Amino acid sequence: MTEQQRRTRLAPSERRALIIDAATRQIAEGGYNTFTLSKLAEDCGMTRAGIEHHFSSREELLIAVLLHRDDLDAFAITTPVEGRDPRTFDEDSAWKVLDNLVIRNAGQPELLRLYTILGAEALDPQHPAHDYFAERTRTARDLLADLSGSWHPQPRAFALAVLAVLDGLQLQWLRFPDEDLVALWKGAGGALARKTA
User: Fold this and answer.
1) 1-56 in CATH: which number?
2) Is the pLDDT of residue 196 over 70?
3) For residue 197, pLDDT beyond 60
4) HEC per residue, the chain
5) 89 with 150: CB under 8 angstroms?
6) In sequence order, what are the residues at sequence separation of 6 or more whose Cβ sits closer than 8 angstroms to the Cβ of residue 148?
7) N or C end: fewer C-beta atoms under 10 angstroms in the chain?
8) Is residue 2 within 8 Å of residue 85, measured between CB atoms?
């Protein structure tokens, strides 16, 4: 956040957006377990009470960060096919959505790292984002099954395979960022596509 933004009186929605952006960066760098509202307040040029005026807890802010990223991704990924029922997609349209997802993720490694770290931490049922990640996985699986339902003989199996490949490739790319995530996906996605023929 710039010094000007710190000093300027912002509308509540703008202030919340700036807090979410700063929280996203902080969580991406160190994971949720090192994230504190006090450090966030310092990064935003606010008091902790000021942060708590907008978000009552770390947990509430974490979910806001995750939902905000989901909203941005959904818009970017589905724009080329907006307004269409996923259950009516042909194979080419479905692969276009998947390609858009990978291209978007390749352009935001810090957010992909955030999701990877939080997703691993949230395997613990006591983690505040445990239910969020479980529901997000179910939703992604269902959407992929819908995307492939009109052309794949086993939509659910295809959905599980795509999620497994995407998760694995993204993890490899985060470990070896010199690799080209889109090229890795084209190779692995091509292998998945050949299995459907």
Assistant:
1) 1.10.10.60
2) no
3) no
4) CCHHHHHCCCCHHHHHHHHHHHHHHHHHHHCHHHCCHHHHHHHHCCCHHHHHHHCCCHHHHHHHHHHHHHHHHHHHHHHHHCCCCHHHCCHHHHHHHHHHHHHHHHCCHHHHHHHHHHHHHCCCCCCCCHHHHHHHHHHHHHHHHHHHCCCCCCHHHHHHHHHHHHHHHHHHHHHCCCCCHHHHHHHHHHHHHHHHC
5) yes
6) 89, 91, 94, 155, 158, 159, 196
7) C
8) no
Rg of the chain, C-alpha, whole Å: 19
Rounded CA gap, 99 and 93, in Å?
10
The phi, psi pair for 9, rounded to 5°, reads -75, 120
Residue 194 CB contacts under 8 Å (≥ 6 apart), including other chains: none
User: What tokens were used for 192?
Assistant: 């998945």
Quick one: angle between helices 109-121 and 58-78, nearest 10? 130
* pTM, two decimal places: 0.76
Residue-wise pLDDT tens digits, 127-163: 999 999 999 999 889 989 988 999 999 999 999 999 9
